[in-house]
Amino acid sequence: xxxxxxxxxxxxxxxxxxxxxxxxxxxxxxxxxxxxxxxxxxxxxxxxxxxxxxxxxxxxxxxxxxxxxxxxxxxxxxxxxxxxxxxxxxxxxxxxxxxxxxxxxxxxxxxxxxxxxxxxxxxxxxxxxxxxxxxxxxxxxxxxxxxxxxxxxxxxxxxxxxxxxxxxxxxxxxxxxxxxxxxxxxxxxxxxxxxxxxxxxxxxxxxxxxxxxxxxxxxxxxxxxxxxxxxxxx
Length: 234
Hints:
globular, mainly alpha
């Protein structure tokens, strides 16, 4: 127990002094996950909107596929992209393995089905009535779709935040395709695994606390917007 308390005290010291090594890891984590979720949002929101506006019976297979991929184990995603990006793989010539780009692509694959699937659910939950009203008023397809997206913005934002929470805390995929290289591909989750194995509990706990704070902020945003944006108490 004393080891735990000592680790927590040293971890707070690292956080309060903004330890350069720890900050580098935290910033890289935010960069990789942020870019992955940005690209997943740009692709997933239009896809989810399109599927949500279609009759459920016509998109049954696509819906089942999205629901399946929402639960895709990160290690499986990492393995697939490792085989694609390895020297003998079909995309090996791109030289993406052991780079932040490979980590972004792997996390993109994990976030996309979540954002698209939850967007589809949100659109179906509130979009039909809005869609019918917009069409009654003479709106075209694009304007109708934009109106539905605006009215479902809280559900869509919740989908994006959920996708971010999924990827920033995962370790399997980024460990496999990134290699956990110091100063290049080492992020919070992979660094925690490494430092724990080395017995460097202070840094491991510090990174764990940083990850908890970030996760709390993400879930606070999700809770806030799931309340329709009316609850301002975080």
